[in-house]
Amino acid sequence: MRRSPMLSNRGGDTAALFFTPTRTSSQKLGWLVTGLLGLASAQFASGAFAQGIPPAIQQIERIQQEQQERTQRQFDLDRESARPPSNLQPVAPAQPQRQRPPSVCRDIAEISLEGALSISPGTQRELTSPYAGQCLDAGKIELLMGTVTAWYINEGMIAARVYLGPQDLSTGRLTLTVEEGKLEKIRVDDKDSDSISTRTAFPGMLGQPLNLRDVEQGLDQINRLLSNDARMSIEPGSEAGASVLVIANEPKKRWRVNLSADNTGSASTGPLQGSVGLSFDNLLGLNDSISFTDRRTLDRKSNTRDSVSDSLSYVIPYGYNTFSVGFSKSSYKTMFSLPGGTRLTSDGDSTTAFVRADRVVFRNRDHLLTLSGTLTHKDSKNYLEKQYLDVSSRQLTVGDLDLSLRSAAFGGVAFLGAGWSQGLNAFGALDDASGLPDTAPRAQFGKARVSASWMRSFPIAPGHSIDLSTSFSGQYSRDVLYGSEQLLLGSVYTVRGFSRYSLSNDNGYFIRNDIGLRNAFSLGGYSGDWRVYAGLDGGYVRGHRGDGDSGSLAGAALGVSVKLGSAMLDTYVMNAVHRPSWMPKEGARVQASLSFSF
Fold first, then answer.
1. E strands, 411-463, where?
2. Which of 78, 81, 294, 568 could cross-link to 563 by cystine, CB 3.0-4.6 Å?
3. What family does this chain come from, according to its entry (predicted)?
4. Across-strand partners of 481?
5. Sign of CA dihedral 43, 48, 49, 53
6. Cα separation of 89 and 355, whole Å?
């Protein structure tokens, strides 16, 4: 473990920088850089943050935060399904012919459910107690049987049957026999393409009662792969109460290539960006997937402006669990000018590695609750005029625990999330020294995170709809944070309208709102849609002392997107609506992205 220095800058982590010359550089320029950063340290200590810190410090932080933001988004896309969760609607099974109860009324003091292994004793009492102690005729007994059957259907156990066997009701005791059914076999119909692994999609289900929720989960794991489009059906088994689950799939090719270009990159490393993505489904025959993405500056200048980011991820499911690992490496080069005209070059690289486990802890027709745990290691190295910036370069290890809920709400879909991030002194991470001042950033920090979103589509005519969406994301920490853990405002994924300047600090939030008109069409045998939309975003960040990059941003966007087959074009005009008085003004900017997959 490497001990953190006693003096550091939370805004750029380089208020007091110690240089380790690891590359050849001019001695005079080296003393100039050292002097400038020493001056920045003194000015930071006196509170002159915005005017005193060299622009390179904030510029470096923004570059690495944006690279980290894009990489995290790519990891999320690799892990998550492009399709909504399955929602299989249970249908009440037709009850088989059985001996009808006598039409006369019988006094029943006690009711028992035989074979109802999935119903707890307490729930059994809740179901039967309204009928116990009454004189039951045939109609009331039928109602009781329907009540028990409805419980099974609501729980997704659609193969369960309730019977009334021969018995003497004059004893005052009524016994209903439940046959919960079992899954006898899982059959895959995919034209012998081996596109589906039932071992990881439906583990432990054979011989157990058939539960629709388990089937939904398995279908989600299968259809997470874009090469699959699976459907299910249930057939009778070879014996009474047994069922056969049939999974029909029309698989597409397992590999995909995605090409994209956009002008949403940082002005300091080159706005024109391009990416190539490669992915392969069912690599090991376990419903797994592997993805690789390379993103880089297209309008690069070899010595003054460049950025490259590579990411690799692997995802494997197992029933209600999804496991993923990933690795990314990013690098940048940029140049900035001092007030006197001196130009300095900065470059650096960062690597991120993580392991993650997701567990669906509850699901029904309307709700999906997921618990997630992630362990991430981050290593960043920065250089100014080929001199290694010791304090600005660091290793951090972070543990995340998250709980997320997807739910049907107000005619749409809502997402709620809450999580905790904890800095750990593990795997070579920076270890906080004892006696750090309150203004020093912490490697062993604690941070709370919350998020919420809602979206709904309002059909207005065949093929036409109005789409609404709103989202909120925020974080809070009692600790001063390093730049990589702060909240960044002013980017494609937070507050639109800002491409050159941003705000970043320990605590804050942002809100994004969109409204769009979507229209479906077909052209040349391909289906597609075009969408006109408007967006309004806003956010606020604040540090513990209230200075630095504290403040609020607001921005607006107006755009149009067109999707045809596997090609998509999105272009919009964005403009700043509100900014702090000290932040330079940015004019309206047109941003566009074009992507194509095959």
1. 412-424, 430-431, 446-461
2. 568
3. Belongs to the TPS (TC 1.B.20) family.
4. none
5. negative
6. 35
| CA separation for the pair 479, 471 (Å, rounded) | 26
From CA 365, how far away is CA 86, in angstroms rounded?
Answer: 9
CATH class belonging to 182-249: alpha beta
414-469 pLDDT, tens digit per residue, is 999 999 999 999 999 999 999 999 889 999 999 999 999 999 999 999 999 999 99
Quick one: tokens of 326? 């990933």
Architecture, CATH, for domain 106-179: Roll (3.10)
For the chain, which residues make up each domain, given as ranges? 106-179, 182-249
Please state, in angstroms and rounded to a whole number, the distance separating the CA atoms of residues 352 and 396.
Answer: 10
Say what the pTM is.
0.86
Q: Under DSSP, is residue 198 helix (H, G, I), strand (E, B) or coil?
A: helix
342, two tokens: 């001196």
- Within this chain, domains 106-179 and 182-249 share the same CATH topology: yes
Digit-coded pLDDT (tens) for 151-166: 999 999 989 999 999 9
Give tens-digit pLDDT for 31-50.
555 555 554 444 433 333 33
Strand ranges inside 137-181, DSSP E: 161-163, 173-179
Query: In 437-476, which positions are buried (b, 16+ CB within 10 angstroms) versus exposed (e)?
Result: eebbbbbbbebebebbbbebeeeeeeeebebebebbbbbe
Name every residue whose Cβ is closer than 8 Å to that of residue 335 and which is 6 or more positions away in sequence.
Answer: 303, 304, 305, 343, 344, 345, 346
